[in-house]
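Hey everyone, long-time lurker, first post.

I ran two proteins through the pipeline my lab uses and got sequence/structure pairs for each. Pasting them in order. The first:
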Amino acid sequence: MFETLTTTGTVCGIDEDHDIVVQYPSGNRWTFNPAVLTKANIVRSGDTVQGAEGGTSQFQVGDLVQVCYDLERIKLLQRGHGEWAEAMLPTLGKVGRVQQIYSDSDLKVEVCGTSWTYNPAAVSKVASAGSAISNASGERLSQLLKKLFETQESGDLNEELVKAAANGDVAKVEDLLKRPDVDVSILKIILKHVNNRIA
């Protein structure tokens, strides 16, 4: 571990505890609390720095991005770009917000209540930071997110039931409730929550 005191490493991931995984030229990887690390901007001759240093990245901090749906594809894309962790599985197909763009153009994306480092090829832009979406009122953003969710079928009937109820789609709720594989206790939780808010 002595090399960590004298050698500059490269951030290659963030673990489930939000600790930073750093790879060193020796090939060793060490995990650190972010408070003990210092960012080092190193530009070698002939290299161009992109992303956080004002380069040509197609993404900006604040952009809404959607994570790739394809598990096998994202595992390949993440090699050398923060790597793949099984804890990232819930983020597949989800929309998050770019928090930071690293010098190698990798993206720190807040998604599903946590932050992960993604290869920019593993996400697609949903909306730009400076677009009308980020400047819109909460109501307009709510409408746009509603449209986004309406077009996606998750395959999880319980999730579809919750979405339909949240969107006020009575016909879809009724159709889903007729299916034997839907957990009706989810609806009971929603109704209890609504009744508590009304009372």
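...and the second, right after it:
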Amino acid sequence: MTYFAHHRSQTELVLSGLQGLTPGALLATFRSWNDARITRNALNALSDRELSDIGLARSDIDAVANRNS
């Protein structure tokens, strides 16, 4: 049995999703991504105790960052 797997790089996937966007929509997408990145970095800088104090676990960080973007 032969298996064929076609893997597209992350960059190809991102760029294909941005194809056809207006400059305003492209800027909004970038800002949303950047806001999520900043949130993720800020939460990752907190200790487990600090995250617990605000009701989060380390496993919640991606969901919180993506929800607010």
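Reply from user beta_strand_b:
Welcome! Quick read of the second one: The longest helix spans residues 23-44. The two ends are 44 Å apart (CA to CA).
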